[in-house]
Amino acid sequence: MTSEHRPPDAPPARRGRGRRPAEEVRSDVLETVGHLLLTEGSADLTFERVARLAGVSKTTLYKWWPSKGALALDGYFHAVEEPLAFADTGDIRADLTSQLRAWSRIMTRTPGGKVLTELIGQSQTDADLASAYRSLYSSERRRLAGERLARAQQVGQIRPDVDVRVVIDQLWGAAYHRMLIPDEPVTDDFITALVTNVLDGVGGD
Amino acid sequence: MTSEHRPPDAPPARRGRGRRPAEEVRSDVLETVGHLLLTEGSADLTFERVARLAGVSKTTLYKWWPSKGALALDGYFHAVEEPLAFADTGDIRADLTSQLRAWSRIMTRTPGGKVLTELIGQSQTDADLASAYRSLYSSERRRLAGERLARAQQVGQIRPDVDVRVVIDQLWGAAYHRMLIPDEPVTDDFITALVTNVLDGVGGD
Predict the structure, then answer these.
(1) What's the CATH number for A3-75?
(2) Which CATH class, in words, describes the domain spanning A89-200?
(3) What is the per-residue pLDDT for A109?
(4) Within the 62-91 window of chain B, which residues sit less than 8 Å (CB to CB) from chain A?
(5) Does B103 touch chain A (CB under 8 A)?
(6) CA atoms within 13 Å, Cβ hemisphere of B165
(7) A-chain residues within 8 Å CB-CB of B205?
(8) Domain limits of chain B?
(9) Residue B20: its pLDDT value, please?
(10) Which residues contact B92 (CB under 8 A, 6 or more apart)?
(11) Nearest to B177 among A117, A122, A177 (CB)
(12) Ramachandran region of residue B72, left (φ > 0), alpha (ψ -120 to 50) or beta?
């Protein structure tokens, strides 16, 4: 489905008659939701509208996603999977910098930043959403980051004794901290300093 | 006022007749609020109850703190000022480790962790609270951390070209990240790894 080439609220093009395979329907829904979240944010994301846009019944949507939060998180994950992919050019410093810059662009220049920080916010008092946040978004993002860091460790670009799970918090965690409590801004200089500090250390002498 | 030695809901001991100086009243209120937050959390924190416990009128409370969030943040800041003070023993590694362990104890073993993460959560959709969070809590905590890091930089324990504001996000920001999105736990091992990684760097070769 190429939602970019259709007017935002037009129904999807039908491909022949009969039932579409479930995986195709599912993928259409996720693309619709992800596109809405990165272009508009979550204010007007409703099961009603997503059902109409993706050409599925609300019953089907509720069967797969029990809440608006779960639907948003799954759609968001799919929307950022490509732009936030972890490249492996063989240079961990360059790869972390470009990934974090892509992250920073989405978080600060699209409605995606507000979508995520509000979901994190709401998950502080909503245990179901907190659990959905981890299972549908953050734990998989951590796994992907961890894989890239582990490969850097295998080729000697990260010390063998380092727990890469901690490095994830020192990079993306530090950056989320600035999004959630914006005493200081998320800028390209910040991203560069972050990667430099993590790899080279800030200790003197 | 030694609220620890009184039953939790007893009114404060009166010290003679007449008006107490405003600063003394203010400090009594903050101590009352901070004590409640670290022992009970924020569920039963009301202006009514704080007024009764600290022996002040609700009008006075509202004059100084326009919202429950502002009252909680100011009280919380005062409650943790001493336990989270930045010691300077001349050894930045030891001082960061002990401060972050104290932080971790308060966040994971008292109701204080939930108080803060819920305030951060709510501040994602409440601009007044977000502003109060920064002005009454986080920006001053950052300032105190920055002072200690700057002294370490002056004595050569942190490289001169490092922006210590970024280091703050890499230490406390990384730790808050684990509190807010608990894919991984905040443990003493995590704190040790955090400080080691930040000072020594994780890069190989």
Answers:
(1) 1.10.357.10
(2) mainly alpha
(3) 97
(4) none
(5) no
(6) 15
(7) 156-157
(8) 3-75, 87-200
(9) 85
(10) B148, B149, B152, B157, B158, B199
(11) A177
(12) alpha
Is B122's Cβ below 8 Å from some Cβ in A?
Answer: yes
Residue whose C-alpha is closest to residue A86's, from A176, A38, A160, A149 = A149
Largest CA distance in chain B: 72
Answer whether residue B132 shows pLDDT above 50. Answer: yes
Select from A150, A190, A144, A143 the least CA-distant residue to A171. A190
pLDDT range class, residue B90, cuts 50, 70, 90: very high
**DSSP-derived secondary structure for B22-75:** HHHHHHHHHHHHHHHHHHT-STT--HHHHHHHHT--HHHHHHH-SSHHHHHHHH
Predicted confidence (pLDDT) at residue A11 exceeds the cutoff of 90? no
Q: What is the pLDDT of residue A19?
A: 78
Amino acid identity of residue B169, one-letter, is D
Place of tokens 């019953």: A59
Taking the Cβ of residue B187 and every Cβ of chain A, the question of whether any pair is shorter than 8 Å is answered with no
Query: Which ipTM did the prediction report?
Result: 0.91
Torsion A24-A26-A27-A31 (CA) sign: positive
Tell me which residue has tokens 């326009």.
B66
Contact in structure between A165 and A176 (CB atoms under 8 Å): no
User: What CA–CA distances, in Å, run from A181 to A63, A69, A166, B122, B180?
Assistant: 36, 22, 20, 11, 12
List phi, psi (to 5°) of B170.
-75, -20
- Contact assignment for B202 to A169 by CB distance below 8 Å: no
Which residues have a Cβ under 8 Å from the Cβ of A79 and sit 6 or more positions away? Answer: A30, A31, A33, A34, A35, A37, A38, A112
A89-200 has the same fold as A3-75: yes
3-class SS at B87? coil
- Flag whether pLDDT at A4 surpasses 50: no
Q: What is chain B's mean pLDDT, rounded?
A: 93
- φ and ψ at residue B158, rounded to 5 degrees: -130, 135
Q: Is domain B87-200 in CATH 3.40.50.300, yes or no? A: no
The string of DSSP letters for A55-111 reads T--HHHHHHH-SSHHHHHHHHHHHHHHTTT----SS-HHHHHHHHHHHHHHHHHHST
